[in-house]
């Protein structure tokens, strides 16, 4: 080990930079806290432990300008930071101890990596002289997280700490955002150095693209002008770059219909006639029809995920493709494109706006209207309590003015299909990694972020996922967050059950949750929340009314929906988009 | 199966054909994807874990690195890597873009289609007694190999050159009692200055 061990808590830095000798020395712990303050951090989601105890001690002494939220599991902490980041557009911050503290964060970090969410995760580490010695609560955090972070730092010298924090936040939020891990050995936290937070940092080998190449933008504008049946295919990158409004005005100006991905929901108002809703595996039939028939697909901040394309060879067979994205590694990754434009979506849309003109697309829009008519997004309405009905009722209750955080599985798809999103950042979900147990803690993080605005936050869950991070209910209750926790409880791992029914001859292997499900009403009360149950479709509104009367704590609503309900339309995994299973209901049954 | 694919080929739209060509994928059933050996040079920051991040990207995609060399470059704060791997051209191109996106990487270049020089160094230890020595020395002279060590019952040679020459040398040595072979892996450099076109 080339670096001398320095474990004494009272040790001073052996050689402070000569230019900074006049500054008072601060411990690594204080430097970290002052750096977070300088970075404008509002919330730190964390959990103390042996390796970071000095940071918590310093926090107790300093009473910093940010608020520390003590979560009850580190995974919940990372999801809360993700929810905060997604709802506000700011960087989420997590602070955990070494070893298990760090490994418990792995799922959340991987989730943030897949969904391009800006996070900085500070992990404790054993003292530098013990690294690699299998010390108590040691884990090679940098090694474990290498392939799921945008970048990671192991701080070996307290003098580098402030600049490293600055770099971490810069990397997390700029370009294509992502999680950054900063590993802090215990002796570095204890060592002393002068504190100076740099105004800006230079990172060699890292540059952020801005405007797109003018020739490529010109070429794209020409392709749009020449197209008879163009279609915007909009992903989460549009919202991240702050380009949703620009996209909306561009689509309206040129009369080009818009389909969005799961993460693109909210980038274009779904109540606009030009919207064809979500595309892909559980997208609308008409969105997928539009994709299969378009002659020009304009992909904006989207990455051609397999849940979007299905069988890739058969996808969008007639389309020339324009792809606007900030990440060069995403361009032509899954589908070679005709016109790549590398740049910040928001800036490229500005460039494009100057070059495109209104055009008459009556024929194409009429065709899309006919498809919408032919197979609308709907569900059967009878005496049974159906999950889609609950989601519709939530939209009616809030007029769509809420942040909806869904979990993973059937609830996620119904939440995506039936809420009708009109604002960017109003829909949050774990799309890439598909992490069950995401919704509840992420909704908590979003609720902290929305506190000053007073926007409703709804967490939509299944009975499977909600239990995976249920401990955070107590945290939300302690902070009096009025989250509306909806459980679409069908007593099954619903999406797996759906695949078993459709593709595995109804062999429901280990998907029945009834024997292990708790009484969710009692569970909510035990955590200091309000618990409600609804078993009848006639009571949905009354249940929501009761829930919205509560303003000082979370409300858990256990909706006992029918088990057999499935998510449709559906493109079976790996199938061509043309082969959609459209609906389980006959149109006559629809109101 | 073959007729199926043949029929699909017939039904491809012009856009699908374009994408297959752009991706370097087979269009006719008897064609193969375009797979080549790639020689890639990377400049990375001299920081802990940087090398690991680079090689990780290849192993993640299931590419075997045939050789990796790393050493100091012109700038002592940067390391220069030469990687040799074989794979689908399209996927390699994508890995290179991901490599470029690494915070630690400063410059990434695929030299495969550039005019470039490659060298490799190889040490070979052969068992030989005093009586066999003369014959052995006359053979290795053809390859301009140097004797770097000599013991009563062994000779160690050093040979430098393009990979083909090293392979040939090791091939010839197989007639003797080879005890150990150590190859450095390739280092490569384009012939002209980067800014000349």
Summarize this structure as a short list of keywords or feature phrases.
heterodimer, A: 591 residues, alpha/beta, Rossmann fold, six-stranded parallel β-sheet, 22 helices, disordered N terminus, disordered C terminus, B: 197 residues, alpha+beta, Alpha-Beta Plaits, 2 domains, five-stranded antiparallel β-sheet, 9 strands
Summarize the helices and strands and which ones pair or pack.
The complex is a heterodimer of chains A (591) and B (197).
Chain A: E1 25-27, H1 28-38, E2 43-46, H2 53-62, E3 67-70, H3 74-88, E4 92-96, H4 100-104, H5 106-114, E5 119-125, H6 141-145, E6 151-154, H7 161-173, E7 179-185, H8 186-190, E8 192-194, H9 214-226, E9 230-234, H10 236-240, H11 244-254, E10 258-260, E11 275-278, H12 285-293, E12 296-300, H13 306-309, E13 320-325, E14 339-342, H14 345-353, H15 362-374, H16 387-398, E15 402-406, H17 410-418, E16 427-428, H18 439-450, E17 456-462, H19 472-478, E18 484-489, H20 494-503, H21 520-526, E19 530-534, H22 540-549, E20 555-560
Helix pairs in contact in A: 1-2, 1-7, 3-5, 3-18, 11-14, 12-15, 16-17, 16-22
Chain B: H1 2-11, H2 14-23, E1 35-45, H3 50-60, E2 65-72, E3 78-88, H4 89-101, E4 105-110, E5 116-127, H5 130-141, E6 146-151, E7 154-161, H6 163-173, E8 177-183, E9 187-190
Antiparallel strand pairs in B: 1-3, 1-4, 2-3, 5-7, 5-8, 5-9, 6-7
Folded structure, characterized:
The complex is a heterodimer of chains A (591) and B (197). Chain A is an alpha/beta fold and 591 residues long. In chain A, 35% of the residues lie in helices and 16% in strands. Chain A has 3 domains: 18-194, Thiamin diphosphate (ThDP)-binding fold, Pyr/PP domains (Rossmann fold, 3-Layer(aba) Sandwich), CATH 3.40.50; 214-374, TPP-binding domain (Rossmann fold, 3-Layer(aba) Sandwich), CATH 3.40.50.1220; 387-568, Thiamin diphosphate (ThDP)-binding fold, Pyr/PP domains (Rossmann fold), CATH 3.40.50. Chain A is built from 22 helices and 20 strands. In chain A, the strands form 4 sheets. Chain A has a 6-stranded parallel sheet with strand order 3-2-4-5-7-6, with helices on both faces. A 6-stranded parallel sheet of chain A has the order 11-10-9-12-13-14, with helices on both faces. A 6-stranded parallel sheet of chain A has the order 16-15-17-18-20-19, with helices on both faces. In chain A, helix 19 (472-478) links the parallel strand 17 (456-462) and strand 18. Chain A is globular and about 75 Å long. Chain B is of the alpha+beta class. Chain B has 2 domains: 34-113, Alpha-Beta Plaits, CATH 3.30.70.260; 117-189, ACT-like. Chain A, domain 2 (Alpha-Beta Plaits). Chain B has 6 helices and 9 strands; from the N terminus they run ααβαββαββαββαββ. In chain B, the strands form 2 sheets. In chain B, strands 5, 6, 7, 8 and 9 form a 5-stranded antiparallel sheet that branches. A 4-stranded antiparallel sheet of chain B has the order 2-3-1-4, with helices on one face. The longest helix of chain B has 13 residues, at 89-101. Chain B starts with a helix and ends in a 7-residue tail after the last strand. At the A-B interface, strand 6 of A face helix 2, helix 3 and helix 4 of B.
């Amino acid at each position: 080990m080339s670096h001398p061990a320095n474990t004494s808590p009272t040790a001073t830095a052996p050689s402070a930079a000569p230019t900074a000798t006049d500054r008072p020395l601060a411990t690594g712990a204080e430097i970290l806290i002052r750096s977070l303050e300088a970075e404008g951090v509002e919330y730190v989601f964390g959990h103390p432990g042996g390796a970071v105890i000095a940071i918590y001690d310093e926090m107790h002494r300093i009473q910093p300008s940010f608020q520390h939220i003590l979560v009850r599991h580190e995974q919940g902490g990372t999801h809360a930071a993700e929810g905060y980041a997604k709802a506000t557009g700011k960087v989420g911050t997590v602070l955990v101890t070494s070893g298990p503290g760090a490994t418990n964060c792995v799922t959340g970090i991987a989730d943030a990596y897949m969904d391009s969410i800006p996070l900085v995760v500070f992990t404790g580490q054993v003292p530098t002289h013990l690294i690699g010695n299998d010390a108590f609560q040691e884990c090679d955090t940098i090694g474990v997280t290498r392939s799921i972070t945008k970048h990671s730092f192991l701080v070996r010298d307290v003098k580098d700490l402030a600049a490293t924090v600055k770099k971490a936040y810069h990397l997390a939020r700029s370009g294509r955002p992502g999680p950054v891990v900063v590993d802090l050995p215990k002796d570095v936290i204890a060592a002393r150095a002068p504190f100076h937070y740099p105004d800006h940092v230079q990172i060699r080998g890292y540059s952020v693209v801005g405007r797109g190449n003018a020739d490529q933008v010109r070429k794209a504008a020409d392709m749009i002008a020449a197209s008879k049946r163009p279609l915007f295919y909009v992903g989460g990158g549009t919202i991240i770059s702050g380009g949703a409004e620009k996209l909306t005005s561009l689509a309206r100006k040129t009369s080009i219909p818009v389909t969005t991905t799961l993460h693109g929901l909210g980038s274009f108002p779904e109540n606009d006639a030009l919207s064809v809703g979500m595309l892909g595996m559980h997208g609308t039939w008409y969105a997928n029809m539009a994709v299969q028939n378009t002659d020009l697909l304009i992909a904006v901040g989207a990455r051609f995920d397999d849940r979007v394309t299905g069988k890739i060879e058969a996808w969008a067979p007639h389309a020339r493709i324009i792809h606007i994205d900030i990440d060069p590694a995403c361009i032509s990754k899954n589908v070679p494109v005709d016109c790549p434009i590398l740049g910040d979506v928001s800036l490229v849309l500005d460039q494009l706006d100057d070059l495109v003109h209104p055009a008459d697309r009556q024929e194409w829009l009429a065709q899309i209207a006919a498809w919408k008519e032919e197979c609308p997004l709907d569900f059967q309405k009878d005496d049974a309590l159906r999950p889609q009905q609950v989601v519709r009722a939530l939209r009616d209750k809030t007029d769509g003015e809420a942040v909806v955080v869904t979990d993973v599985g059937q609830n996620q798809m119904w939440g995506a299909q039936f809420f009708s999103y009109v604002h960017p950042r109003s829909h949050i979900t774990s799309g890439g990694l598909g992490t069950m147990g995401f919704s509840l803690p992420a909704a908590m993080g979003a609720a902290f972020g929305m506190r000053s605005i007073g926007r409703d936050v709804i967490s939509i869950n299944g009975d499977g996922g909600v239990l995976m991070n249920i401990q955070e209910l107590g945290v939300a209750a302690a902070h009096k967050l009025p989250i509306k926790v909806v459980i679409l409880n069908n007593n099954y791992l619903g999406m797996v059950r759906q695949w078993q029914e459709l593709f595995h001859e109804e062999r429901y292997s280990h998907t029945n949750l009834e024997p292990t499900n708790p009484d969710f009403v009692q569970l909510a009360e035990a955590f200091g929340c309000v618990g409600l149950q609804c078993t009848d479709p006639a009571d949905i509104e009354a249940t929501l009314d009761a829930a919205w009367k509560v303003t000082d704590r979370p409300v858990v609503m256990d909706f006992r929906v029918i088990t057999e309900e499935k998510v449709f339309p559906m493109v079976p995994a790996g199938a061509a988009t043309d082969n959609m299973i459209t609906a389980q209901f006959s149109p006559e049954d629809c109101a | 199966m073959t007729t199926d694919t043949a029929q699909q080929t017939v039904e491809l739209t012009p856009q699908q054909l374009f994408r297959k060509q752009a991706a370097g994928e087979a269009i006719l059933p008897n064609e193969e994807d375009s797979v080549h050996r790639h020689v890639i040079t990377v400049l990375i920051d001299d920081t802990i874990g940087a090398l690991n991040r680079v090689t990780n990207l290849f192993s993640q995609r299931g590419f075997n690195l045939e050789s990796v060399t790393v050493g100091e470059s012109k700038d002592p704060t940067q390391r220069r890597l030469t990687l040799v791997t074989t794979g689908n051209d399209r996927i390699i191109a994508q890995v290179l873009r991901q490599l470029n996106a690494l915070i630690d990487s400063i410059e990434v270049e695929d030299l495969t289609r550039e005019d470039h020089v490659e060298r490799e160094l190889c040490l070979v230890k052969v068992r030989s007694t005093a009586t066999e020595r003369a014959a052995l020395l006359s053979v290795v002279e053809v390859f301009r190999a140097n004797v770097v060590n000599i013991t009563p019952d062994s000779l160690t040679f050093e040979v430098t050159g393009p990979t083909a020459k090293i392979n040939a040398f090791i091939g010839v040595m197989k007639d003797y009692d080879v005890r150990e072979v150590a190859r450095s892996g390739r280092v490569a450099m384009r012939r002209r200055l980067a800014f000349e076109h």
